[in-house]
Amino acid sequence: MMRRSSPPSSQATPPVPEIVESKESKQEWEYEVVSDLGKDLKARLNELGADGWVLTATEPAFIFRRPKKVEPSTFRAPVGFAAPRS
User: Fold this and answer.
1) Model pTM?
2) How large is the C-alpha radius of gyration of the chain?
3) Hey, what long-range contacts does 34-37 have (CB within 8 A, 24 or more apart)?
4) Domain spans of the chain?
């Protein structure tokens, strides 16, 4: 015979982990707003996509975004394991 477990008590809720964001881990975006994509819609969308733009909205205009480029002087390499030695 199977035993059924009782439902969890409403008073025993698990703690919610705190999410800590540092400035280094926060993604920054740049946006491009285009009101007219021209006659060759496919070609223009492919051109924007090749430049890293992703369509995010179509109203009130075509709104694209891509990750903001990090300036080399402010770039900090990730810390991790070294490459395996041969």
Assistant:
1) 0.53
2) 24
3) 34/61, 34/62, 34/63, 34/64, 35/61, 35/62, 37/62
4) 29-70
